[in-house]
Structure formats: structure tokens, C-alpha cells
Amino acid sequence: MSIAKNTIKIIVHITFTLFTVLVTTLASATVEDQAKRIHDRITGVPPTATELTDLVNAINSGSGRDAALAVSLNNKSFYNVTLKNMYTPWSNEAQTVFAPLNDFTATIIGVIRDDGDFRTVLYDDIIYSGVDAADSLPAYSNDNNDHYAALESQDIDLSDDAKFDISTQSGLTQHPANAISGILTTRAAAKAFFVGGTNRAMFRFTVLNFLCNDMEQLKDTTRPTDRIRQDVTRSPGGDSRIFMNACMGCHSGMDPMAQAYAYYEWSGEEGTEEGHLEYTEGEVQPKYHINANNFPYGFVTPDDSWSNFWRDGPNGWIGWEDPAAGGPAGKGNGASSMNEELAHSDAFAQCQVKKVFKTICLREPTTGADITEMETLVTNFKTTHNYRLKDVFADTAQYCMGN
């Protein structure tokens, strides 16, 4: 017993000592330390001698933020490594970082590089792909990921718009423009979230990745149930209380929103690489009518119109944009308008800043100072920076570079 107690004391002592050293180091960081920390956190690789000098000079002139923007955020590794690893888990249901580069992740990288309004990744007619010159890339295909796998295997510099650039998704894929909704209609997203099922997965993972909340956090049993589909039984296990106290809390808000995806399907089998996005304009996919006998009196999906029942009630905290101020109307038709509703919420902005903070600072915002900084970062992201996420990386790098 005494040996165990001594071991615990030693571990506690070592932990406290390391923590003290860390705090002391951060508190007494030299300019070179700050420069290295900025570069390491943003790019994942050490700075060259020239980059270190440029970073130090920028910090000495008064701004770690300017140092980050001038040097580290123009580094190839920020795009090819940091952003690729940060956003790849959002593009697959397993949420693994070890998936190849794909059109979903590549488009996010491009929008950040080009200082685009980050909200538009969810709803604009955009896609980023390689510019095939001397690199002999396979052509983009709706049926495979070869183009993006080659971009990664050939180590194409994604910071270079001469090698990697924007185009319209409708033009590249030949899908109709009204079928396009940013990264959510890319091949990678369709393969992950439109395959099988009922298309509720696309809505759930969009909210999870871009609003930082899962269905459990958004459950609201005060919303009307008139748009819940027939496949949701009203008496699970013969007990209607389960539906009233649990199931309806998610489905009453999710089902009328996920109706926006009623015309989408993935052609391939789940677990295989084959397949492409299918869009049947004006024709609801059969998956929206499966298991109708679970509750025949449930909602029968007629089209892709959607409504946001969460604008009222406890989920008002999400901060839905006011239509009177030019924001989305809270209802509409199709995926693009519904995803614009999500992207123009306060929760969307807060979520993006929180994930940048964790990536750059290597921790969640926990202290009072962190929370205050987060509020400033979110405000600046929405106003000063006009939703340019690259600026949030720069601001966060300055905050976490040490003093």
C-alpha cells in the first residue's frame, strides 16, 4: 500500500513539475519561441531559417498575427497537412483522419486559402480541383476519387492557385445548378451521408460538424409532430411515452429540415468505392417512404420543401439570422437554401472558431481568458473578417503563441 501511495505522490509531483515548467516556459517565451510556436501550430512543421527570421521580425514589429498571415498561413503545409487533417474527418461517417483527400475537404481548403466567406461552403455552387498542366492528373470524375487521390499522392501544392483552383460544381459535375449545395453535394459527402438510410444522416452530420451539436443537444419535445415521417413509430416497444419524451424531440425538428434532401441518393453500395450522386428533380427518393407501416398516419414527403421549426422554442439559442435583416427565411425548397439557414446561424460561427482554437492551441477553451478571447474571435470572424476563416487562424495563433 505504501509503495502505491509513494508512486502516486511521485506521479503527482512529476505532473506538477512539468506543468510548472510549461507555465514558466509560456510565460517567459522568447520571440524565437513565439515564432516557432506560431509556425509549428499552423503548419505542423518547423520553420526554415528564413521563415523564422521573417516571423521574428514581424513579431518584433508588434504583431504575431501579422507574422502568421505573412509567413505560416502561406506555407504549403498549412493547406496540404493542417487543413487536410482538420477537415477530412468531417467528410466521412467514421470521422477518420486517415481518408484520402477528396472533393469535400479540397473545397474547404480552397475557400480558406482564397479568403472566401466560409459560410458558402455549405450552399454555393463551388468546387476546388487540380489544374492539370505538367502534373498529369486524372480528370475529375463523378464515379471515383482518383483526381483528388492523385493531388495528394503527387504532393501538389494546394496553396498555389495555378495548380489548384475553383470552378462551378454544376459545370464540373454536370448536375443541375439547383441540385448543388456546396460541399454537401460533393461526391465524398454523398458517398458518406446519402448512401442507404433515409438521408437524415446528412442533416445530422452537418449539424454535428458545422454547429458543434448532435441531435441529443437539440432535442426539443415542444415542437409540432406533423412533419415526422411514417417510418418513425409512435409507440416504440408498445410504449408511446418513449416517442413523446425522446423520439419526437429530435424528429420534430430534423425531419422537416432533412426534407430538403428528398431528391438525393447515392448510387453505390454502402462500404464500396463505386457510385455517384443521383439527383431526381421533382421526384422524391423511395427512401423517404420506407417502413410506411410503422405509422401510416405519419407525414408523406411530397417534395423537397423544408421548414425550420427550431426557430421557435429552446433552440433559438442557435442564433438564427433574422429574415428581416436579409437572412434566410426559415423555410424554402432544396438543400442549398436549407444549408444556408444553418450556415447563417450564430452557432455555425461559434463552432468554426472553436475548432480553429482547438487546432492551433491544442486544447479546448476553458479558462476565463479563453472564453473572453473566444467571444472576441467570434465577433471578429463575423464582422471585421467577413467570415474569412484564415484570419481566425491568425488571431488564434497570436493568442496562443505565449508571452
Helix-strand blueprint:
Blueprint (H helix, E strand, L loop, with lengths): L1 H26 L3 H13 L5 H12 L3 H7 L5 H12 L15 H11 L13 E4 L15 H8 L10 E4 L1 H5 L13 H7 L6 H11 L4 H4 L21 H19 L5 E3 L10 E3 L25 E3 L23 E3 L1 H9 L2 H16 L6 H15 L6 H11 L4
Antiparallel strand pairs: 1-2, 3-4, 5-6
Identify the notable features of this structure and list them briefly.
single chain, 403 residues, mainly alpha, 3 domains, two-stranded antiparallel sheet, 16 helices
Provide an overview of this structure.
There is one protein chain. This protein is mainly alpha-helical. The chain folds into three domains: 2-78, no CATH class; 83-179, no CATH class; 198-344, no CATH class. It is built from 16 helices and six strands. It has helices at 2-27, 31-43, 49-60, 64-70, 76-87, 103-113, 146-153, 169-173, 187-193, 200-210, 215-218, 240-258, 335-343, 346-361, 368-382, 389-399, and strands at 127-130, 164-167, 264-266, 277-279, 305-307, 331-333. It has a two-stranded antiparallel sheet with strand order 1-2. The protein has a two-stranded antiparallel sheet with strand order 3-4. α5 packs across α6 (103-113) and α14 packs across α15.
